[in-house]
Amino acid sequence: MFKFERHLGYLFLGFILVFSFAVVTTYIVPEVSAKNITETTETVHYTDQQKEGRQIYMREGCVWCHTQMVRTGEENLGTIFRRGDIGQVTSPEWYATQNPVLIEQHRRGPDLSHVWTRWPSISWQKMHLQNPEQFNPGTWMPPFSYLSNKDQDDLLAYLQTLR
């Protein structure tokens, strides 16, 4: 019969090893890897207006439906407008100045990584922001017409960085 009292040391050692492995793989390795990411020409440095727009993007919950990361294998996917317009695969260096990084994992709406290269007109973006149903009937996106003009302009300034 197995007696736990005789093997508590081994059980404790096993627990410590499993816990240490979990800490190393979920915290230490990603933290060290993130410090090795350097800026490139693709890294965005935000203006004050763009920083405000990014805050509005987070505050209004855009991040819950829109990803900002084109994954490998998705670069040739299309959206409702045309095939292949989702953009190139994103790179970690693009996010070097972001805190927090807004890549997300759930995608109810389109990926916004390269949104400004797909629909570069400010007037179109503003009309879509105020009444998305007009452009995409049945969309889940709520209208953001309640935002002040300044907040809308700040949000659009942030979206312009997503090229």
TrEMBL record:
<dbReference type="InterPro" id="IPR036909">
    <property type="entry name" value="Cyt_c-like_dom_sf"/>
</dbReference>
<keyword id="KW-0408">Iron</keyword>
<keyword id="KW-0812">Transmembrane</keyword>
<dbReference type="InterPro" id="IPR003468">
    <property type="entry name" value="Cyt_c_oxidase_monohaem-su/FixO"/>
</dbReference>
<protein>
    <submittedName>
        <fullName>Cytochrome c oxidase subunit CcoO</fullName>
    </submittedName>
</protein>
<keyword id="KW-0472">Membrane</keyword>
<feature type="transmembrane region" description="Helical">
    <location>
        <begin position="7"/>
        <end position="29"/>
    </location>
</feature>
<dbReference type="GO" id="GO:0046872">
    <property type="term" value="F:metal ion binding"/>
</dbReference>
<dbReference type="InterPro" id="IPR009056">
    <property type="entry name" value="Cyt_c-like_dom"/>
</dbReference>
<keyword id="KW-1133">Transmembrane helix</keyword>
<dbReference type="GO" id="GO:0020037">
    <property type="term" value="F:heme binding"/>
</dbReference>
<dbReference type="Pfam" id="PF02433">
    <property type="entry name" value="FixO"/>
</dbReference>
<dbReference type="GO" id="GO:0009055">
    <property type="term" value="F:electron transfer activity"/>
</dbReference>
<keyword id="KW-0479">Metal-binding</keyword>
<keyword id="KW-0349">Heme</keyword>
<feature type="domain" description="Cytochrome c">
    <location>
        <begin position="48"/>
        <end position="163"/>
    </location>
</feature>
